[in-house]
Amino acid sequence: MRQVVAAVLLGLGLGGCVTASPIDDPAPPPTAFPTIRPSSAAGTVQAPSAGATATVWHAAGATVAGTVSLDVDPVAVDIGAPAAWLLAAPTADAGTLWVAVHDDGSVTAVTIGSQGAVRDVDVGARRTATTRPPALHAPDGEWLLVEAHDDAAEFAGVLPLGDGRTVTVTTAGDLLVTTPGSAFPERHPGPYLPDARPIRVDDRRVALLFGPTDRYEHAVLGDGIEATQARIVDVTAGTVSDTVVPEGRVIEGLHPLVGDLTGDGNLDVVVTTSAESDGARLEAWLLAGRGRRFGPAIGQPGRWRHQIAIAPTGPDGEVEVVEVVTPHLDRVATFWQAGDQLLVATGDVPDAVVSHRIGSRSMEDAAVIDVDGDGIRELVGPATDGGLAVVRHRVDDTMVESLAVPTPESNIAIAELPGDRAALGYVTADGLLVVWVGRA
Length: 440
What we know:
Layout: E1 4-6, E2 53-55, E3 63-67, E4 75-78, E5 83-90, E6 96-102, E7 107-112, E8 118-120, E9 135-137, E10 144-145, E11 159-160, E12 166-169, E13 175-178, E14 186-188, E15 199-200, E16 205-213, E17 226-234, E18 239-244, E19 250-251, E20 257-259, E21 268-275, E22 279-286, E23 292-294, E24 305-312, E25 319-325, E26 332-338, E27 343-349, E28 367-370, E29 378-382, E30 388-393, E31 398-403, E32 413-417, E33 421-427, E34 432-437
Parallel strand pairs: 3-28
Antiparallel strand pairs: 1-4, 2-9, 4-34, 5-6, 6-7, 7-8, 9-10, 11-12, 12-13, 13-14, 15-16, 16-17, 17-18, 19-21, 20-21, 21-22, 22-23, 24-25, 25-26, 26-27, 28-29, 29-30, 30-31, 32-33, 33-34
């Protein structure tokens, strides 16, 4: 049996700026928490609704609505080993589901009930691929891991749409749409990026990257292949509704961000583009012929910008693009708003968050979420000196607060919960699942 432990954590006050400094993870003491049930006795877990979906990535990037309470001690569950991937999802009984895929492909799934009870559950698989981020769906009202089609590319994401269909990219680079009960999936010709992450736009459309190329030599995202286009595809009609083509540049990422950056009710697509001449810059494409906005380039190749989310992070709740500039070097958290012709930087702070590890295909090591209930979301991720960092964009300054808690090793998993609540969790190098949930 695995043991449940509650962490005694230091420095959780979020009222002021705390300078990050090296810390030792505090050792959790013995508690009266119950032990987790053995997996052999596990039952299934209900989703809030049939057809629900949960993925590591989200339609607007790594962000959700609702408040998570970081000013209280988290629950820490010993799941026995570190995780290559972590998923979070709400359950029908007002609890949360956490699914960890370990480095050997084994799967641990636990629920944390609304009263704190923890139990093992069955999500339909005890082993799965570690090369792609996992996804959950609820075809009959119970959470299950999505199984990739046999033709799915090794590193391509698999996106459940909520109506039972799934979308992925094949080894040949085609877009594959599978339908329950049909032995013949639909194939839309590519070539799409071989490790593309399809992003859900709505019930019919997905956004993903197209046109692989090796002309830009950087290879910080797992290989030396980047994209030359971003596309929005209507998978029901089988048509491409919008295409973003940054002439002469590559799109350096695994997926675009999709959201309403300008506040006019229309979709915008945000990507990081790069070129040998001047390196990486952030670009926002305003669809339906509304033009584009872009920020300054770094000025040299081999320097990446990590786009995190489009979210209300501004001092007065303005919608912004949140990114980390040179996440492997200076780690500058930067907030951008759409100006008349350009993207305008409205706040930045260096040495803020470890949002990506070089060579990793995980784009979710940081997330954007409201931690104090004011309706404005913050950037949350591993602090540069250990623990967890919270980056706030405020009127007078942008600041980093460090929480002396166990340091994340997995991606940051987030989930939107009923009652304007949210959940946030991660797995440490010692195999602790650390979870915060918003107050009911």
